[in-house]
Design a protein that fits this description.
Main location: membrane
Shape: globular
Helix content: 10-25%
Protein name: C2 domain-containing protein
Membrane topology: Multi-pass membrane protein
Largest sheet: 6 strands, antiparallel
Family: Belongs to the MCTP family.
Function: May function as a signaling molecule by regulating the trafficking of other regulators.
Low-confidence stretches: 143-228, 412-418
Number of domains: 5
Distance between the termini: 55 Å
Amino acid sequence: MSNLKLGIDVVSAHNLLAKDGQGSSSAFVELYFDGQRFRTTIKEKDLNPVWNESFYFNISDPTNLHYLTLDVYVYNHIRATNSRSFLGKVCLNGNSFVPYSDAVVLHYPLEKRGIFSRVRGELGLKVYITDDPSIKSSTPLPAVESLPPKDPGLTHRQAYTVHPVSNSVPPNRVERHTFHHLPNPNHQQQQQPSSAPPVNHHVPKYVADEMKAEAQPPKLVRMHSASSSQPVDYALKETSPLLGGGRVVGGRVIHGDKTASTYDLVERMFFLYVRVVKARDLPAMDVTGSIDPFVEVKIGNYKGITKHFEKKQNPEWNQVFAFSRERMQASVLEVVIKDKDLVKDDFVGIVRFDINEIPLRVPPDSPLAPEWYRLGDKKGEKIKGELMLAVWIGTQADEAFSEAWHSDAATPVDSIPAASTVIRSKVYHAPRLWYVRVNVVEAQDLVPSEKNRFPDVYVKVQIGNQVFKTKTCQARTFSAFWNEDLLFVAAEPFEDHLVLSVEDRVGPGKDEIIGRVIIPLSSVEKRADDRMIHSRWFNLEKPVAVDVDQLKKEKFSSRIHLRVCLDGGYHVLDESTHYSSDLRPTAKQLWRPPIGLLELGILNAVGLHPMKTRDGRGTSDTYSVAKYGHKWVRTRTIIDNLHPKYNEQYTWEVFDPATVLTVGVFDNSQLGEKGGKDLKIGKVRIRISTLETGRVYTHSYPLLVLHPTGVKKMGELHLAIRFTCTSFVNMLYQYSRPLLPKMHYVRPFTVMQLDMLRHQAVNIVALRLGRAEPPLRKEVVEYMSDVDSHLWSMRRSKANFFRLMTVFSGLFSAGKWFGEICMWKNPITTVLVHVLYLMLACFPELILPTVFLYMFLIGVWNYRYRPRYPPHMNTKISQAETVHPDELDEEFDTFPTSRSPELVRMRYDRLRSVAGRIQTVVGDIATQGERFQSLLSWRDPRATAIFILFCLVAALVLFVTPFQVIAALAGFYVMRHPRFRYRTPSVPINFFRRLPARTDSML
């Protein structure tokens, strides 16, 4: 039985609503979780009660914790009638539960139970998971219910158990990372709850040919806006492929006669799997009676080779080989054991299989049990020795797919086989990043090396490769005061320590260390809000060894005053803010439940540009990388193929629709003896909010890359994408929430700080992912994260300027039209405008209803012309077609520049830095205007639906409400007292900031 428990420390409440008629309340808290209910003591006549009581719930099924919720209700106890009244509630999802070491006290605002509830105040809770066996679960209340009762009245006082809060609980760290990857049978059960017909285990030989024969030519998608049109070769192409779920036509899946598959977004590919487990009683092959065995699995022109063992007659390999059924050119599978030799490998024994007799295995069937097979000689006679094998035919849904050696990812037998470690498909999990805030307050008792001068001291703070210094302060009383904030980025698990050294500037370029202190990051306090962190004094250690007797005489040491914390209330930006794939804060307690699932099928690539030369011909060894949130995925590398077929499917949980999925294609340069940088072929960005729920998008995306010679198409990437909504209400609620966590608005960072911190975050992520096997290289991480998007580019500046002009083109057109009205260019139109103006002047209350109704009608009319495809990079909008070669030379120039002497270099770099800020500001202004345009363009179908419904309701309300009342209320609302203002942006602003812009189409 699991010892896992959920601990809740009920700390205190603040500013509760008075409910007893005497300006106070007698509050208590009830907690509901997994069919268990606990209650705190009653705090009489206190609007700011303090409980400091802890409770422990049993977790019956830890695997189901993700779907459980903790409901916390605050009630006022009415002594006269022994009943209770509602004061507020807090609901927490299982996603936000963290281990005890990560838990902090959070003050949650109390929520309403219904529309007419009146609540106020906050409730302080500390929620964590522990598996400490010494902790016993609390005694539940009688008549335990799985949900809180609808009737708030109580007929009798119920018993409860109270546990005092203790900070000495040593629970083990509990972390579970769940990846939704293809070979996951649980995912299949969640997506397909209905029972499927049994799978016929007979595989016809014409399966692969039948699937290819039904392919239809792709359908070209025309751009809706004429201003955004571009060459046909650079346009998006809608396709109608036959996938595992059936034929995709117009975003809908037409199911065929075949059984449904977990891989319903990719083409079903059949592989012949061979698991070589071990051998026994192998014959001796030399005079010493030993053998150096290895296994060669061969079919047709492809073979896979296991590692060899020296002098071992009972070797164990446990290695899987996968041969693509499309490339099979033989009907017999040969598994040969050989003896490793310097000149020529000796034959030991062979096992043959007829491919037509090999069984089919489809998950969730259990893995096929391996069997012992007697070895035979070349003539088929049985000889000494046995080999344990498992041979079956499966699809890419097989659990062995990701770890297997693949024939379609390797070279033919007459070439050198590629290293299997750098060609396998893998799922990576980026580390959780924290902002480290170091507030250097002051230092005391500073003793310089020279006694006849006051020290000029500063503090140098270092975490890993990140080093920052405070300003220099002259310590005239041998004490220095700074009160400076320094910000760093750190990743879990914390490997680097926080090192602070107080240094004395003796002379130009000469500094002496007065003292140093080392603080482990694992011991630093974590916070999820803007509460004050208690400061601490640290003793500074001498940097060099000192005499022990002298140390005993000196009873004091220099000290430094610090405030150090790990800020978990921020989202650590490690990618461009325009293309962020994750907006959640670091602290898991603040995470909200997911709103949907994003499924991506990476089908194939066609027409790739050769990236290398092999045997006198151009070729590529390509793989794809997809990034969303903390999860990175990498497909297997397809060797020597300009038209690779991946057919791999991956799934992510979506927490916010205003996020972007990025898919890139790279050439693997690690297969030769001298591995260089992996070359970028191109990438695709897809914003989740532009996808309709439940629709399958099958498009061929052109891979456009900007080179020093101009824009170039490197090929096309074929993808299948589906966004499935799991909580429609939560998804709509996200449109009213701030885009970033609350701390970004309460204690915002400057633009310079964000740029610096983002640079550090990308370096940390690249370093951690580079330590995986196979490594995800730094150039891949930087390209996927758009690390150079802030640098100066004349092309981007012109593109942003023309975007701005396009946004205001509507105003210019309206001004031109009004000028024509004034000039009586069309008398009939001018008379009608005069009549309309006279009506609105006589009835001003019709102005706003008419405007909103007009926008409602425009939105409904534009529904017919809504985009049916995700936005993609546009060469015309990006000004990539008309860019001057000199501007391209400037864009691809190094930073700092290498084109001119020192003086010009300094001025040129300064100009580029300033111009980069200007282009960002211009781009942001254009983004705001484009968001206005997207209100009625159905680019985000949910946002447009919300807005036109609001316009309809607003038109009706404004129609029946006097205009003077609306104007008065609007004026009073704009001039409202600061007490009635929130520290976070309002709902309309949050809704507006979530609208998509044309940043998704920028190259």
